[in-house]
Amino acid sequence: MDAITWNAPDSDHPARQAARASMTAVIGGHKDEWLKLFAPDILIEDPVGPSFLDPSGDGHRGHEGIGAFWDNFISSIAGFRFKVADSFANGDCCANVATITTTMADGSTMTIDCVLIYTVGEDGLITSLRAHWEPDRAMATVTVP
Q1: How far is CA 27 from CA 10, 41, 49, 119, in A?
Q2: Phi and psi angles of residue 17, each rounded to the nearest 5 degrees, phi first
Q3: To the nearest whole percent, how much of the chain has pLDDT over 90?
Q4: What is the pLDDT of residue 63?
Q5: Which pLDDT score is estimated for 56?
Q6: What are phi and psi of 91, to 5 degrees?
Q7: Structural domains of the chain ordered from first start
Q8: According to a count of CB atoms within 10 Å of the terminal CB, is the N or C end of the chain lower?
Q9: Cβ atoms < 10 Å from Cβ of 42
């Protein structure tokens, strides 16, 4: 099974291209490639609002902030699968309706149903990533081998 299943419109809209590149870098564990996709003043909200990943709900700002987000959370996941069911690209944004399945080193999995909104600048760099998902719903899907 491919790590990205794209069952959605797939034009070469800049925000859609940036979204796919971000997913590819995450799947490959390529932090430096991932960071290069983002503008210096990037704001990532994943998920939007307060959560165990971001207790203040202020998001992760700048390359230093999102680098720490990678180190603390993304790097702890052994595998990612993205399934994009729909994608709406207009203006400088792309909203993807997606399911992300994460696999931990012990083989446990979690499924995150979400809407991922990428905004890009004129240079194609991501200026904002807002991930709308509910941690309690995701945690209820955890399976342990």
Answers
A1: 19, 24, 25, 20
A2: -60, -40
A3: 96
A4: 98
A5: 96
A6: 60, -135
A7: 4-139 (3.10.450.50)
A8: N
A9: 21
